[in-house]
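queue> holo job accepted (flavin-adenine dinucleotide)
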Amino acid sequence: PKKALVIGSGIAGIASSIRLAHAGFSVEVFEANSYPGGKLSEIQIKGYRFDAGPSLFTLPEQMEELFQLAGKDPKAHFDYEKLEVACHYFWEDGKQVKAWADINRFAEEVETKLGESAQHVREALKSSAYIYDHLAPLFMHRSLHQISTWTNAQALKSYLKMGKLGIFSTMHEANAQRFSNPKLVQLFNRYATYNGSDPYQTPATLNIIPHLEFNIGAYFPKKGMHDITQSLYKLAKDLGVKFHFNAKVDEILVERGKAIGIKVKGETRLAGVLVNNMDMVNAYKTILRKQKQPTKLLNQPKSSSALIFYWGIKKNFSELGLHNILFSEDYKREFEHIFKKGSIYEDPTVYINITSTHKPDDAPAGGMNWFTMINVPNNQGQDWDQLIAEARKNIIEKVNRVLKTDLEPLIEVEEILEPRTIESKTSSSNGALYGNSSNNRFAAFLRHANYSSDIKNLYFCGGSVHPGGGIPLSLLSAKIMMGFVLGK
Ligand code: FAD
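queue> job finished
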């Protein structure tokens, strides 16, 4: 059979290997780390288990499709449940809102707790669905780098509706126009962070995201987020994919405009198809350093990064669910710090993900595994040791104020992930979580294509190329990439 090599075993790399094996290729994956999954890995310390990176799972059909492709029943290999409450929101003045998956229940909750008309919430989610229906087929499921994408009937219909799709205002402007309660504006603005963007800059088009959580649904894999990696890794192996760990690729070999193989651990491996899953910016700096650089694409501003404290907490907080948000009192200033000052605001929005609420064996009895995260700027060489020490203090004080507790003595174990270590562990440039930011309306057009236009037989997948970061889009990148390999 024809041979394909994949560089990197992030979820898009694994998904690509599955698609290539299914298409009859003999596939080998080379991974720098000693484990698969890249950003989607796990941490175990003293009886506590944490999903290391992504915590929110949407669009499960992207996962299921891979099992179906291999003729397997997805539920038998990767089981997940729909969340009844997508997120628990807390403010300092004691207000709390549960984002029920049931839209009417959520709308009524908002009306009761925040005094905003339930109808406004329903309309917002309808408008979110409208954007999704018009743009997802164009921007998520297809390559933007093929003429046919722009000349089909779907595209023509969408051009006529540009205004309604939110291209000309920011997410914040649209939300502030729709809602009168600033807390609800804040709640809806938060969706910009789902791809590492700034609600005060990103186009209102990103109001597409609430549709994923409410209308389509937020889910939890029954064995934890890490099972996304584990189950796909197992599927790939069942299909005959060969994985090499601790195998950092040094170079993609190119001869007369054609990728012919890789250099890894001093050896040369040849193949007819090369798929790169490594972050695009760092790939051009390292394994493609001798090739022509797509400078404009490489220089686009990156998404935000994250500071995470994995805390084993020896107490049960019954008011907390799987996803919890303790909102900042001044959201605008928080984003100015992240995207303009390159710093961390003293009153950050704190996100606490607790999988032990759904998977009790993730923490010892009577305890909880807190994945405590704040959004931070990507790495521009800041004094992170100092920023992290200050942020830790501010986060603990915030939790103490909102949950009326004394957290420090309850922290039994601690591990930290931050922009520098996100970059060193996954090669993500500047430690950005989602590749390029979506802070301007042209961002979608300034991501790298899923193939190289200069080098034949070289393809790209992953969160730093089209259609973008996050699990569903990374999985879709593998699918779009495969279309090019098969010449579709
Ligand atoms: P990556 O995970 O980036 O992996 C790339 C792999 O390539 C790594 O394993 C790396 O070691 C390997 N590699 C790099 N260079 C080489 C080389 N030279 N040779 C061999 N191997 C190499 N998404 C969501 O959908 N929901 C969330 O809630 C969410 N939260 C997040 C929270 C955090 C803290 C982080 C870090 C990310 C989050 N994301 C979330 C984003 C999501 O994790 C990513 O978009 C997705 O996992 C990217 O997958 P990828 O295939 O691009 O590969």
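queue> The first strand starts at residue 3 and ends at 7.
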